[in-house]
Specification:
This protein is an all-alpha fold. The protein contains eight helices and no strands. About 5% of the residues have low confidence.
């Protein structure tokens, strides 16, 4: 698994010089958390998949092929990871509070992509808010901004 991840980043970003390997791991961690949120209700539908694809492509300025490969690895990593701490610890170490709040915003977009909030999604979002050390007011504000009317 680790070799596949490393090969993906080496193949696509070697020689660009402007994206250190830590950034690759952070991209993977962020994408894996979006998949965790999407899977929380045990129903990953096409609206959620499309939302994750668009959010990751936009945030990291990846083309369609790069995004697809990254998301494939992220989904596999999310499935195989025993917990969320590895992802959140890495993000907490390298991202500012503003970047983590933007990630929570993206998570809410994924949660509401199917038009509803499941109890399992709510529980996971609260857990991630705590693990990412996002202030409660920012968590609630993000939730309300993306809640369907």
């Amino acid at each position: 698994m680790i070799k596949a991840i490393q090969k993906f980043f080496d193949d696509r970003f070697e020689g660009s010089g402007d994206t250190p390997h830590d950034d690759h791991a952070l991209r993977l961690a962020a994408a894996a958390l979006l998949f965790e949120v999407a899977h929380a209700d045990y129903d990953l539908d096409s609206a959620e998949q499309d939302m994750i694809h668009a959010l990751i492509a936009d945030q990291f300025a990846l083309d369609k092929e790069e995004t697809t490969h990254l998301l494939s690895l992220a989904e596999m990593e999310a499935r195989e990871s025993p917990d969320l701490h590895g992802f959140t610890t890495l993000i907490n170490q390298h991202w500012s509070i503003e970047e983590r709040i933007r990630l929570v915003e993206k998570m809410w977009q994924v949660v509401y992509a199917d038009g509803r909030l499941d109890d399992h999604e709510q529980h996971l979002m609260r857990k991630l808010q705590s693990l990412l050390h996002v202030p409660h007011r920012d968590y609630i504000a993000a939730k309300l901004r993306h809640k369907p009317a």
